């Protein structure tokens, strides 16, 4: 298939591009490089452009005879979305609608959309099933949920076929450590911990130690980026016109902030000093998901179900690329 990966220079997008390419898909990346990295894109496959530019989107879709789109281009920081919601609604929601409308105009009828655990807010049941009512508690979650609704409406009205993948906490790097996570500024837990191990930060701040969890810190479901990439590959093959699929992509097992730090101490042999800080705005106490549906329907199963292997994978990338993609330029 000829696939346009929007946001394919970013963290999850680049790992998915690699997996799609490995199995023989003809892949093009559309990215404005605002947070993505040119070094993460296969040579000659980057179309530099912005989601706000409908003409550029239409050109990318038609000139490359695209059959399907994967959409990763979004801002993804919960605290930033609380501080700067306008940025999130403009890019995440309006950008996605521009993309869907360009697809309609170009006659491209299939899309896989990156959604998030944040659509669930504070769920009633853990692990969260897909039929848990979505009730976001931060602007990031609201932007993703808005697009989920738009996809369902476009499917009904315009026969669009779509898949929504609700990811939990993406982490880790490619198994050959050639691509990995590089955000600037970094806000995610595992890279921050590993920056402490590399001596680039003094300590890691633990946001909230009074949550109703076993050790008082937030619990998350950490899912390896290559497992996410595999889920995209598999779900693409199941998309049908006018229909939508929605899956959680998670391991079903949660780890607290303190457990992740403890694991990183073992993996890196660094003491990783901690300072305790108040809760961070927008953080639910526990997010762990059931991925039974995707396991049953697509035969997908996480290859990295434990935190130790995930932190090892992230550490291989960060220790060999201490300045991220900056090490290559
Ligand atoms: N976290 C933390 N210190 C940090 C970064 C994150 O304690 O420097 C916590 C955060 O409050 C959340 C968990 O680690 O409970 C995972 O946060 P992250 O930003 O990695 O992902 P999110 O769950 O927000 O998507």
Strand order of the largest sheet: 3-2-1-4-5-6-11
Strand runs, count: 14
Q: What is the radius of gyration?
A: 19 Å
Number of helical runs? 10
Ligands bound, unique: uridine-5'-diphosphate
Mean pLDDT: 96
| Uncertain residue segments | none
Please give the alpha-carbon distance between the first and last residues: 32 Å
Helix content bin: 25-40%
Please summarize the sheet with the most strands.
7 strands, parallel
Structural class: alpha/beta
What portion of residues belong to β-strands? 15-25%
Shape: globular
Please explain how this structure is put together.
The chain contains ten helices and 14 strands. The strands form four sheets. The protein has a seven-stranded parallel β-sheet with strand order 3-2-1-4-5-6-11, sandwiched between helices. The protein has helices spanning 11-22, 54-63, 78-83, 85-106, 139-158, 189-197, 225-236, 257-268, 292-298, 307-320, and strands spanning 2-6, 26-31, 46-48, 68-71, 110-116, 161-167, 169-171, 204-207, 219-220, 222-224, 244-249, 255-256, 274-277, 286-287. Helix 6 packs across helix 10 and helix 8 crosses helix 10 (307-320). Bound molecules: uridine-5'-diphosphate (UDP). The site of uridine-5'-diphosphate has 15 residues, from helix 6 and strand 8. Residues 78, 169, 187-189, 192, 204-207, 218, 220, 257, 280, 283 line the site of uridine-5'-diphosphate.
């Amino acid at each position: 298939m000829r696939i346009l990966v929007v946001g394919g220079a970013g963290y999850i997008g680049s790992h998915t591009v690699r997996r799609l390419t490995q199995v023989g898909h003809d892949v093009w990346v559309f990215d404005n490089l605002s947070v993505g990295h040119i070094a993460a894109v296969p040579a000659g496959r980057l179309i530099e452009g912005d989601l706000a530019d409908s003409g550029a989107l239409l050109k990318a879709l038609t000139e490359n005879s695209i059959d399907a789109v994967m959409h990763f281009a979004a801002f993804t920081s919960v605290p930033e979305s609380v501080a700067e919601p306008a940025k999130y609604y403009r890019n995440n929601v309006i950008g996605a609608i521009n993309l869907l409308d360009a697809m309609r105009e170009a006659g491209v009828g299939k899309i896989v959309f990156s959604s998030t655990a944040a659509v669930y807010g504070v769920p009633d049941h853990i692990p969260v099933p897909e039929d848990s009512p979505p009730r976001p508690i931060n602007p990031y979650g609201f932007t993703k949920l808005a697009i989920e609704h738009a996809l369902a409406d476009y499917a009904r009205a315009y026969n669009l076929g779509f898949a929504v993948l609700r990811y939990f906490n993406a982490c880790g790097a490619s198994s050959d450590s050639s691509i990995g996570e590089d955000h600037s500024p970094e806000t995610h837990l595992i890279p921050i911990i590993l920056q402490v191990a590399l001596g680039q930060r003094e300590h890691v701040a633990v946001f909230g130690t009074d949550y109703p969890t076993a050790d008082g810190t937030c619990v998350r479901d950490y899912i390896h980026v290559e497992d996410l990439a595999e889920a995209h590959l598999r779900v693409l093959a199941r998309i049908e016109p006018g229909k939508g699929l929605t899956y959680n992509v998670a391991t079903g097992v949660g780890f607290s902030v303190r457990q992740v730090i403890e694991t990183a101490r073992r993996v890196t042999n660094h003491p990783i000093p901690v300072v305790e800080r108040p809760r961070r705005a927008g953080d639910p106490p526990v997010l762990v998901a059931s991925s039974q549906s995707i396991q049953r329907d697509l035969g997908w199963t996480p290859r990295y179900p434990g935190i130790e292997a995930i932190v090892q994978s992230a550490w291989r990338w960060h220790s060999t690329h201490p300045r991220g993609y900056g090490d290559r330029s």
